[in-house]
Amino acid sequence: MKNNYYILLFLLVVFFGCTKKSIVDNYMAPSVDSLSFYLSSANDINVSFKSKQEYNKKAFDIIINLKDDSLNRVNLFKVANRYYNMSDWNAYRETSKFILERSKSNHDTVNMAKAYTYLGDYYGFKTVPDSAFMNYNKAEKLYIRINDDYNLAKTFLSKATLQYNVSDFFESEIMVFKALRLLKRLKKTDNLLYDSYNLLGILYNEREEYDKALEFNNKALVILEDNKSIPLDLQLKATSLNNIGFVYLSMHNYKEAKKYFEKGVEQKNLFKERLTLYAILCNNLAYAKFKLNESEGLPDLFYKALKIRDSLGLIPGVVSSKIYLSEYFAYKKDTLKALQYAKEALKLSRNSNRLTNRLETLKQIAVVDPTNASVYSKEYIQINEKAQKAERKMGEKFSRIEYETNEIKDENTSLNIQNRTLIYVFSICALLGFFVYVYMIQKAKNRELLFKQQQQIANEDIYNLMISQQNAIEASRIKEKNKVAQDLHDGILGRMFGIRISLDSLDKLDDATAAVKRKKYLSDLREIEQDIREISHDLNKEKSELINNFVAILDKLLENQRVTFDSELISSIDSSIKWELINNTIKINLYRIIQEALQNCNKYAKAKTIKVELKNEINYLSLSISDDGVGFNVNRAKKGIGLQNIFYRTKECNGTVDIKSNKINGTIIEIKIPIDQKINLQHNNN
């Protein structure tokens, strides 16, 4: 009976694969009109097998000549589905391989995973479980990579079915629960959840855990009742009713088993839509009736199931039906028929590679042919050992495939960890480098600031030295002036006094000599007058030069420019500016700005004329420096040290800079520095 249930599961899995693949047909319409016709005709149940193949081949030929994109691969999957539905396994395999290669060349991970699933289905049907498991495993890794949990759950379920088929029940159970965890997280209640509960029911029945088997089979039924979107033509309710009935059959509760088998057979359109399942239910119902000693409809119900299975070429099902018939006729004491069906079943099972079929047959024939029972028992032991070895070997293969895949995964994980470590190390080094860079920049800025502060102090010192020097010169001049005044007093005034006395004495004379002497004294007075005028002129000039030391220093800078360079220098300093009221910092920065501007003109401008103007405006001291040179790119030159110094010094004075330069008009630097209003008031009062 376990063998019968194994056959049932296999047929259900094949059927589910077929029906699920047909859903893909409506996914996307082809881009060529004739393609739609060929694909539709290849799936038409009223068309002959040969014609279906031809239509599908024509559809394939159209698709491979179209642009290789995702739509193209969807249509290729449609072709594969039709080959699956018509059981053209070789064409199905080749089409799936073709899709896989195209998906690989396009780095299409989604369709690569799907193609691996199709190949897994192919090898599963061809009973090459290790190849099927390997392809499902590849699909699983890809679905994990792209985070497709739903298709990953579907792949887990396919692997679980394979593990069940090789009697690796424990691993199969683990795989089903993996699928269930994903489905619960996705909150899916579709036919995939139904398939998971259904397979768990079958697994627990095989392990003779009948309570759990019934629990999960009933959960599967609840899914069908709650989810009305599951297509009725899948006849999943009939499947569950059969599975529950089979659990009761295994428990020898034939009355309950019969009740569920009868409900299953009565499902609407079952004969038309699921003939294979209908045959299974008929066979199981007949067996339940036989065990209940009910003769109604027997053995015709057995024959009916056998005829359907034989017409469909379902060898495992035919073997199961003949075993039941052998048991039935043995009970009816019809030894010849019992032996006949047992021998026919044994012959079919020996031509099949399904060892479980042969074991069930040998067990039955040993009962109905006691004469040769020892021979059959011996063969049974040999086949059983062979089956156990094959199951163990296949389980080891599955484990090895899992291990090798996980080993590759671990290597990739190790590489990823190494790469991640390298990234971390690089990031830390880059971060440290950045911090060092910022530190060095900040340190350089601090040094620059310190240098500027020291430069400012030095400028103050230089200016003070210049003032001191000028004061020393002024002191010398005052000393000289005092000397001149003394000389004027002692020399010129003495001479004038002598001449005046002499002239007074001439008034008493009235001869010719008096006139000559008077004329001589008048000439001496003219000489004294000229000496006084020269001394007065020199003193007035000196007073003008010494009005302010800054103007003298600035004049000296401008005079050096005129003497040293060929360009003409025109300077204008507003005489109304009260330099004694202007802060020394402003004076120093103005001096340095003019010095820097003249230096730039001399180095780069090639100017013929340079103009320097200092004007007193309302609330501003205005400095204008212009030339008729070659000009420069202001935006680019702003990065230069010279212009940066001008901007920096103007900023120190809270002033503004406006620089205009071009090749035609040369360069104009205009600087406005705010000054205390009292300077302007002083200017206005003056």
Automatic annotation (TrEMBL):
TPR repeat residue numbers: 194-227, 238-271
Organism: Flavobacterium shii
InterPro entries: HATPase_C_sf, HATPase_dom, His_kinase_dom, Sensor_HK_TwoCompSys, TPR-like_helical_dom_sf, TPR_rpt
GO molecular function, one term: ATP binding
Coiled coil: 345-393, 518-545
Record keywords, A-Z: ATP-binding, Coiled coil, Kinase, Membrane, Nucleotide-binding, TPR repeat, Transferase, Transmembrane, Transmembrane helix, Two-component regulatory system
Residues annotated as domain Histidine kinase: 590-677
Membrane spanning stretches: 422-441
Catalytic activity line of the entry: ATP + protein L-histidine = ADP + protein N-phospho-L-histidine
EC number(s) per entry: 2.7.13.3
Highest rank taxon of the organism: Bacteria
GO biological process, one term: phosphorelay signal transduction system
Gene3D superfamilies, per the entry: 1.20.5.1930, Histidine kinase-like ATPase, C-terminal domain, Tetratricopeptide repeat domain
Name this protein carries in UniProt: histidine kinase
Pfam families per the UniProt record, alphabetical: HATPase_c, TPR_10
Catalytic class of the enzyme: transferase
